[in-house]
Amino acid sequence: MSAVVMGAAVWPDGVPSPALRRRAETAGRLFLAGQAERIVATGAVGEHPPSEAEASAKILTGMGVPSDRILLENLSTSTLENLVQTRRLLGPRARVVIVTDSWHLPRALLTARRLGLDASGVTTPLRGGNPWRITKAVIREVPALFWYALRRLPRDNLS
C-alpha cells in the first residue's frame, strides 16, 4: 500500500504550511510503522516554491523515510489532479491510504474511488492549525464535495 500526501500550501521562504506539515508527518509515521511501502508526495509549485511535493519529501526524509521510497507528483494543483497523477504513477487499481485533514478526506476518498483506486484514508491531528483557517476550509469543503460528486472525471490517458 502507498500513502498519498495530499498537497497543501507552501509559505514564503519554502516553509510548509501547518496543514502540509501535518499531512507529511502523518504519512511518515505510517511508513515508519510499516503501514505503507512508499509515499506519494503530491502538489505543484503554488504561490511560493518549492513544490508542495518537494516540501513534503523534505519533511519525510528528515523523519528518516528513505528518498527512494518517496515518489514526487509535482504537476497537480487540485485534489482531482493530485489523484489523477497518483493513479498514473501507481496504476489504475493501486491500494492507497490518503493522508489529509478530516474535512478534506471525504472529497479525496470520493475522487480516488471514482478514479478506480482502492482507497482508504487517515486524517491528521489538528495541532498547529489556525482555527480561522480551519473554519474557512470546512466551509469551502461543503460545496466542493458536491461539485466533485457531480462532475465528470477524466477517463482518457489515466493509465
Features of the shown structure:
alpha/beta, single chain, 43% helix, two-stranded antiparallel ribbon, 5 helices, 159 residues, 5-stranded parallel beta sheet
What does this structure look like?
- With 159 residues, the protein is of the alpha/beta class.
- Helix content is 43%, strand content 18%.
- The chain contains five helices and seven strands.
- It has helices at residues 18-32, 52-62, 79-90, 105-114, 131-150, and strands at residues 2-5, 10-11, 15-16, 38-42, 70-73, 95-100, 118-123.
- It has a five-stranded parallel β-sheet, sandwiched between helices.
- Helix 1 crosses helix 2 (52-62) and helix 4 (105-114) runs parallel beside helix 5 (131-150).
- The model has no long low-confidence stretch (mean pLDDT 89).
Helix-strand topology string: EEEHEHEHEHEH
Name the poorly predicted regions. none
Strand order of the largest sheet: 5-4-1-6-7
Number of distinct beta strands:
7
Report mean pLDDT, rounded to a whole number.
Answer: 89
Judged by helices, strands and strand pairing, the structural class is alpha/beta
Provide the helix percentage: 40-55%
For the termini, the CA-CA separation is: 18 Å
Bulk shape: globular
Our count of helices gives 5
Largest sheet: 5 strands, parallel
Oligomer: single chain
**Beta-strand percent range:** 15-25%
Radius of gyration equals 14 Å
